[in-house]
Design brief:
By secondary structure, the protein is of the alpha+beta class. Helices cover 35% and strands 17% of the residues. α4 (68-84) packs across α7 (126-134).
């Protein structure tokens, strides 16, 4: 993707598909290799079938409603929400997926500048849950995302060159942190009150990579510069 193409794509919606394959950071492999947005219809249908099965009275009332079948169905629904970036994730189930205690998840939710965002229905917004899980050591993508892509369907005919690819954070509105965001000779990143200025794009990107929640300034549709927070990572071609 060229700089001009990046400008054209900066307003694409995150739910339309974010490509997040594995990559190297500091010589260590990071498991940021699942997509947020695109979920194949057969996967959605399977989750719907599991949910319908769990809703049957003979299943829902097993062991007074506390049984493994219901937990599996709830986990499947949470996985679907995370993979699609839509809906909410239950706090208890996110703790299971993240291999942490429920108390740890509650603490993250209570942090003013924390990575998790509460949903109006008192759950956790799926996009923030997905972003948090991406950085959890040992977290694995859904099995269906490990399948090899069909290059004939996607129109891809050539292998990507790893040395020419970089990962940039993507905000909720689909805008990305790209080299054209330099203002007055520098890139301004970080949370309000703790912002940093970097003249070099690579340095600024490296700093964003180590932040719990990457934040940077970019102009909105009216040309006003404001801070946005990253919710996913996008692979682009380095030029």
């Amino acid at each position: 993707m060229t700089i001009m193409q990046m400008r054209d794509c900066r307003r694409m919606r995150v739910r339309d598909g974010i490509d997040l394959p594995g990559f190297q950071r500091g010589g260590k492999h990071c498991r940021l290799h699942f997509e947020v947005g695109f979920v194949p219809a057969p996967v959605r249908a399977l989750v719907a079938e599991i949910k319908a099965f769990a809703a049957r009275s003979d299943v829902a009332h097993l062991n007074d409603g506390d049984n493994a079948l219901l937990r599996i169905a709830d986990l499947a629904c949470s996985r679907l929400a995370i993979d699609s970036g839509e809906g909410e994730v239950d706090l208890r189930l996110l703790a299971v997926l993240g291999r942490v205690s429920e108390g740890r998840v509650r603490n993250l939710l209570s942090e003013t500048d924390g990575p998790l965002e509460r949903d109006p229905d008192n759950g956790i917004k799926a996009l923030s849950a997905a972003f948090w899980l991406q950085k959890k050591k040992g977290y694995l993508a859904s099995v269906w995302q490990e399948e090899e892509p069909d290059f004939q369907e996607t129109g891809k005919t050539a292998d990507l060159v790893p040395e020419k690819m970089i990962f940039v954070p993507v905000a909720r509105d689909g805008s990305m942190f790209t080299p054209d965001l330099q203002r007055n000779g520098s890139y301004r990143i970080g949370a309000k009150g703790a912002e940093e200025n970097h003249e070099d794009f690579s340095v600024a990107l490296s700093r964003l990579n180590v932040m719990a929640v990457p934040r940077w300034r970019r102009p909105n549709d009216n040309g006003i510069w404001g801070i946005v927070s990253g919710v996913a990572w996008q692979r682009i071609e380095k030029k």
